[in-house]
Write a structure and sequence with these properties.
Uridine Diphospho-n-acetylenolpyruvylglucosamine Reductase, domain 3; single chain; Uridine Diphospho-n-acetylenolpyruvylglucosamine Reductase, domain 2; globular; Uridine Diphospho-n-acetylenolpyruvylglucosamine Reductase, domain 1; alpha+beta
Length: about 325
């Protein structure tokens, strides 16, 4: 399989950062992976797996091989009260959500409009509005780089945590996810308590919502807050919502009574990173060619011509300011390259 040289990645990352890859290949099947890794040149170069390019910030050209995962296909592999849906790693995530909602398969409607591909969903354990991929994950198939073999991972194998998985931990850069199977249901167990979902349903006078209603409301909320990457470069939420110990939260609550918070595992408390950043005066701030989005301080944007280094420095300024104000250390959700 031929490898392209000095290939532009500007259209392949949602920040729209103008960088090139030393080598590049578009992967359309598992056989393409086998072919690529039979090329001895591959072993001489570092490797980057690229899905939708929606969770990364390039700060320089990539001096190695970029594999764009474009394996497609959506199949129902088991159907009863529960439905097992298998999707190729290169499928657009929101396309899968739309497919499932249209079929009446419940479980991922809250994850409407999350950017990226199916293959990234278990790696990041993507989540929104009280739902995470781990809640519906059945298994995934992944290509082991060292052996060229395909391996199946169960939910337990993936060691899911908040925005974390085994693929970001001890197995980082060892596997490439080629397909994911989700366990959905024909009986909806709607999660509408998180964020503004219930309020928007009430505003629309929807007393008994369907999964289609929830998906539509989530889409409307996200569109009202988040910029479209096709019109302005961004990677969605740039920072994770911090999780802190109860004793630290009690101190913050005494000083900031209006601070939004949510219960987290092990008696800890999750804070809203966007609120912390906005409280520090960053919402809608423009600095050079970058800044935060006017409707959501959690989102960093490229106003045109921003370099990855410029965006990174701005994110560092936010981290330092929030830490000085609240004593809370924000962690970047995007991958810095």
């Amino acid at each position: 399989m031929p490898l392209l040289e000095n290939h532009s990645l500007k259209q392949l990352n949602t920040f729209g950062i103008d960088v090139n890859a030393k080598l590049y290949a578009d992967i359309l099947s598992e056989n393409d992976l086998i072919a690529v890794f039979s090329n001895p040149v591959v072993k001489e170069n570092k490797l980057l797996i690229l899905g939708g390019g929606s969770n990364m910030l390039f700060t320089k050209d990539y001096d190695g091989l970029v594999l764009k995962m474009s394996i497609k296909g959506i199949d129902v592999v088991e159907e009863g009260d529960d439905v097992l849906v298998k999707a190729g790693g290169g499928e657009v995530w929101d396309g899968l959500v739309k497919y499932c909602v249209a079929k009446g398969y419940a479980g991922i409607e809250n994850l409407t409009l999350i950017p990226g591909t199916v293959g990234a969903s278990p790696i990041q354990n993507i989540g929104a509005y009280g739902v995470e991929v781990k809640d519906v994950f059945e298994s995934c198939t992944a290509f082991e780089i060292a052996t060229g073999q395909l391996k199946t991972f169960t939910k337990a194998d993936c060691e899911f945590a908040y925005r974390e998985s085994v693929f970001k931990g001890k197995l980082k850069e060892q596997f490439i996810v080629t397909s994911v199977t989700y366990r959905l249901s024909r009986t909806a167990n709607l999660q509408t308590h998180y964020g503004a979902i219930n309020a928007e349903l009430e505003r629309r006078e929807i007393a008994e919502p369907t999964i289609a209603d929830v998906s539509e409301v989530v889409a409307a909320i996200r569109v009202s807050k988040l910029p479209d990457p096709s019109t302005i470069g961004n990677a969605g939420s740039f920072f994770k919502n911090p999780i802190i110990d109860q004793i630290i939260f009690d101190d913050l609550l005494s000083r900031f009574p209006d601070i939004p918070h949510y219960p987290a595992p092990d008696g800890r408390v999750k804070l809203a990173a966007g609120w912390l950043i906005e409280f520090c005066g960053f919402k809608g701030l423009i600095e050079g060619n970058t800044g935060t989005w006017k409707n959501q301080a959690l989102v960093l944007v490229n106003h045109g011509g921003a370099t990855g280094q410029e965006v990174y420095r701005f994110s560092e300024k936010i981290i330092n300011t929030v830490q000085q104000k609240f004593g809370v250390l924000l962690e970047r959700e995007v991958n810095i390259l």
